[in-house]
Amino acid sequence: MENFAENVEKMTSGARFEALQQELICQFKQHFPDPMASKTVIIVPSQTLDPEILAKIKGINYYEERLLCLLLLLRMPRTRLIFLSSLPIDKVIIDYYLHLLPGVTARHARKRLTLLSCHDASNRPLTLKVLERPRLIEKIREHILPGHVAHLSGFNITYLEHELALQLGVPLYGCPASLAFWGSKSGSREIFRRAGLPMPPGYENLTSMQDVLRALQELKKEHPDLQKAVVKLNDGFSGDGNAVFSFEGAGPEMNENTLRQRLKMVAQDLTYDVFSEKMAYMGGIVEAFIEGEEKTSPSVQCRINPLGEIEVLSTHDQLLDAESGQVYLGCTFPANSAYAAEIGEMGHRIAQQLAKVGAIGRFGVDFISVKKEDRWYHYAIEINLRKGGTTHPYLMLQFLTNGSYDYRTGIYRTPNGQSRHYLATDSLQSDNYKGLTPEDLIDVAICHDIHYDATTQEGVMFHLLGALSEHGKLGVVCVGATPERAEELYRTTVDVLDRETKG
């Protein structure tokens, strides 16, 4: 009887959630296009992802701050924002974002901003923390003014976010949790197959290390010259759920002991046994490691709106770590002009397939590109059905310049026709930076003229400021009229910070 009741509750919740999502369609038609509409956006920057892998990222407790870029929505004078966080955010950091706002004063924007904190530093998803606090949920409701339409926005969407949306009675702008498979490594390969796009040779829907072993054996049989393969957990992210297997010197009789010895984890301190456990409940894939003397890792960011319409938002070249070539460090925008339009079109084809299965919201697609005889060959690698490392830098550029990206030309232009480029990273770090407060950083930036200048629409925007003092780590978005100017601003920023913090 209890199981029956639980099933009824699940069905009821599912029906209620679908009804809420229909409201989002109405909002998108009537209110989203109007910058003067009275609306409330509830930001829940919860990284509802594998906590063990998250724990490997330095300063992860402060990554919620990456979505502070959404404070720039306050440039619309009748929009209100409710921003949730695990811990209170330094007032200096909030002031920094509000002073970037074009068209409105910081004072006007502050009156329309509500900051709510769980006061909970535990290594658990923010959404879960909010759901544990009924009084906090009631506070959120109280801050949604009469006459305002409201929706919930997050980093990624799981059933926790579904439940929060239901308790608040507001729709959720993001891909429903029921479609999460299409954002997994296995689901990505199926979407690529449906879109008719090239991808590395490999196998998906693996559920054990024995499956992995058999996949590696078959891959080597089919491609005898293959030197390396990548084993990926279905729900890994930023490359930290990956492991690299070397075939070099491995005999034809590979066994699990061979796998244990030759499988090198990308994430520090992630053991073979833990990886094996995660493979058992998460699943994963094996695919060939793409080699090439000239190799890049571009990505495409797209959006499917609640009406099912597709928009290719941006292309980037990802900056990956030198050791494994798997860990995301940052990006340059737009992607290389030699292939930006081509991968933009590939992103559009993928979006068409995702729209068919009902996906909405922002998502990113990663590629590996190899140059052979003056031609670039692109291999689709994975889909991330969520916001990602390229989301916040692009949003900051778009909010501050009011420009747009044309994926058919691979060019971003401001309203006055000028092009803009940037170099962005979440991983500018040094032990010397530890102890530097957000206020110190802003003072340094102003004194050395490396802050963002609204008149020239060039300069440096900072994020992850909360991680600076404790971890010596911060993020930057260096915006310039040319790629060279963006890179120059990055080098200057590093030089200034190194000089200012030199023993």
Report what the structure shows.
This protein has helices at residues 2-30, 51-54, 91-98, 106-111, 126-131, 134-142, 159-168, 185-195, 209-222, 256-262, 272-282, 340-356, 391-401, 438-447, 468-471, 483-500, and strands at 39-44, 79-85, 113-117, 149-154, 172-173, 202-206, 228-233, 242-246, 263-265, 284-288, 295-296, 298-304, 310-320, 328-333, 361-372, 375-384, 404-406, 411-413, 421-429, 459-463, 473-480. The chain is an alpha+beta fold and 503 residues long. It folds into four domains: 2-173, no CATH class; 201-288, no CATH class; 293-418, ATP-grasp fold, B domain (D-amino Acid Aminotransferase, Chain A, domain 1), CATH 3.30.470; 420-503, Alpha-Beta Plaits, CATH 3.30.70. The strands form four sheets. Strands 11, 12, 13, 14, 15, 16, 19, 20 and 21 form a nine-stranded antiparallel beta sheet that branches. Helix 1 (2-30) crosses helix 7 (159-168) and helix 8 crosses helix 12 (340-356). The N and C termini lie far apart (69 Å).
Structure described in brief:
With 503 residues, the protein is α+β, with helices and mostly antiparallel strands.
Annotate the secondary structure layout:
Elements: H1 2-30, E1 39-44, H2 51-54, E2 79-85, H3 91-98, H4 106-111, E3 113-117, H5 126-131, H6 134-142, E4 149-154, H7 159-168, E5 172-173, H8 185-195, E6 202-206, H9 209-222, E7 228-233, E8 242-246, H10 256-262, E9 263-265, H11 272-282, E10 284-288, E11 295-296, E12 298-304, E13 310-320, E14 328-333, H12 340-356, E15 361-372, E16 375-384, H13 391-401, E17 404-406, E18 411-413, E19 421-429, H14 438-447, E20 459-463, H15 468-471, E21 473-480, H16 483-500
Parallel strand pairs: 1-2, 1-4, 2-3, 4-5
Antiparallel strand pairs: 6-10, 7-8, 7-10, 8-9, 11-15, 12-13, 12-15, 13-14, 14-19, 15-16, 17-18, 19-21, 20-21
